[in-house]
Amino acid sequence: MGFIIKVLITAVAVYLAAYLLPGVNITDVKTTIIVALVLALLNTFIKPILVILTIPITLITLGLFLLVINALMVKWAASLVSGFTVDGWFSALLVSLIVTVVSYILNAFVGDRD
């Protein structure tokens, strides 16, 4: 159940990013949920490998290279999902920042009540 809630929170964050940023377009709500699923899969399986492979450059840049990896995940999701477009790397970086902040805030409200 927690995975579904996290995907829905990510979908809300992606939709908000598309609403706020002019270079990001999503055709419908179904596409938004698919984008959230693709981002979840990419962040679960591909991102850890990229983080490990780029440890030296991440250390040299004091962790700022992780922003590039996040933007890469957004661009990759845009290339995998039809109906989701991101114009440029700066827009992808802004999408990743908005998704991170909005997801953090929504997870704080909806988080586990154990």
TrEMBL record:
The keyword Nucleus does not apply. Pfam families: Phage_holin_4_2. The chain crosses the membrane at residues 7-26, 32-50, 57-77, 89-110. Keywords: Membrane, Transmembrane, Transmembrane helix. The keyword tRNA-binding does not apply. It comes from the Bacteria. PANTHER family: SLR0284 PROTEIN. This is Putative membrane protein.
